[in-house]
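Quick one: structure tokens for this chain, please?
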Amino acid sequence: MRTRALRRALTSLLTLSAVGVLVPAAAAPAVAAPTECHGQKSGTLAEILPGQRLEPGARLVDRVSAAELVMQPDGNLVLYALGNPGGYKLPLWNSGTYGNPGAYATMQQDGNFVIYKQGGSAQTGGGIWHTATYGTGTGTVRASLLGGAFVVEGRNPGPFWSTGSSERDAWLCSDFATAAEAWWSGNWTQSASVWLVLQRDNNLVMYRKSDGKAIWNSGTYGGAYRLNLQMAPKDRGDLTLTEENRTAVRWRTGTAGNDGAYALLQDDGNFVVYKKDGGPGKGGGLWNTGTYNKI
């Protein structure tokens, strides 16, 4: 299976510095059939404010999703989805700056978030990566981790930057009110046993938490346009990967003709499309990944 190289070999983490926010990694809550559909996650931000730094080995921990941003000793800034405590962590995004031991990241007063080589600074140079969010406006300047995405807000009015890795709920519904909440490239979700990621290479991939191995994928990597994962009302229960702003469908479950159907990522590792009144223990499955025995 082809996947983008987010899973390069990454060095072990050091201990937390004073900048990071340490929260014990909790197991993912049990996933049940939805009684209603929700949007993206929200809650309290974990922040890096102007003048603060992520030193080598430091991490910023999401208080909503099980995710952390790590300034690795090799110089790579990596966003991980956390699995079982002490277990495998799935890389969701990285800055590609490995090979620079001692590098650190900082939120600057001008609104830019920058990774500097060891000994570098805004005054002496040595920047190796940045979000290009610098500006001269007024307003909030911060870098924050919330809901599985790392976001940098420059000076207002000014630019905005994000890893685009928001965690979504473990179900997708086909009712009109929520079907517009399609997944974008980089979005992901989890159950107690697996992660499901719409990767930036357009492949929808399921990874098991026990060892990070990919156990299912949609085979949709590549292509000239980004794909969205959605259950549009017009498709009447068909889960599709559709080209952004276009009508071409690259992949589908073939479950159309079932108004009110929904898709659910289960704790047993299976991703299932159910009829409106179906669900775990009730039957009504229309399609599944067949991964219930692979976790």
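The first strand starts at residue 46 and ends at 48.
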